[in-house]
Amino acid sequence: MQTPTDLIDSWGTTHEALTFAPTGGNRITAEQLKLLRAAVFGVAQGYDYPNLSDQSSARDFDIKCAILLHETMRLHPSEGSHNEVWSFLGCILLPDIVRWRFGDSTDTMRFVGRERGMRRHAFGRLWWRAYLAYNPKWKEPYGLLSRMNEDDLVQVTERSSIAARPALFRSFCVSFALATKSHEQLSRRLLMREASKRMYRLLSLTAVEALSEQELKILTDDVFAKTAQALLQQL
Q: Is 116 left (phi over 0), alpha (psi -120 to 50) or beta?
């Protein structure tokens, strides 16, 4: 098993299988790729790279790296949905960072990815989280990332009906964070799961894309309030 130190000189900015989309977009240059690697590498060094990080440091790294990737790569969601983008980052540009972040038991999917890069890929999942969480109107545009723990984010991004709608994703997560504070006696996982079911039922009847930010907040707050009430009655 290769360590981060073993892989540190294995990165590159090109590959024989590399291709570009035939139309649209600007092709990233080797120099831009080097700058991207240097930026991510710098964040990792801030968390004791190449020594394996603890769970708390890993979480902080994920947040900073997610913001960095979203701000630097400037991808359109359609580009971010191509798994080849994330495979290149994981296997060619930043393989040592992937190994460092996930240790000796790193799953292949952390390098290669699958399913729009959202769920398993070391960097794809971070970019998507930042993309979904970002709201330029907020004082802290990416503040939602620090309000949700890893398990919370995994749960909500795996619910495609919610995660496919950024505005709904943000509102749902904000309402969830508030509900967990108001109902600390309830399991976070159970609250998320049951509220998601309730939200799914409403999505078949509600055109959430037509709702304003305030209307979405009212909707998702109500979903969590009713879900919490139902769960409390079962205690």
A: left
Cα distance between residue 216 and residue 171, in whole Å: 6
Per-residue pLDDT of the chain (235 residues; tens, 9 = 90+): 788 898 999 999 998 888 887 776 788 899 999 999 999 999 999 999 998 777 789 999 999 999 999 999 999 998 888 889 999 999 999 999 999 999 876 788 899 977 655 678 999 999 999 999 999 999 999 999 999 999 999 999 989 899 999 999 999 999 999 999 999 999 999 999 999 999 999 999 999 999 999 999 999 999 999 999 999 999 8
**Residues in CB range of 76: below 8 A, 6 or more apart:** 25
Residue type at position 230: A
Q: What's the pTM value of the predicted model, to 2 decimals?
A: 0.92
Domains in the chain: boundaries: 1-147, 163-235
DSSP label at residue 208: G
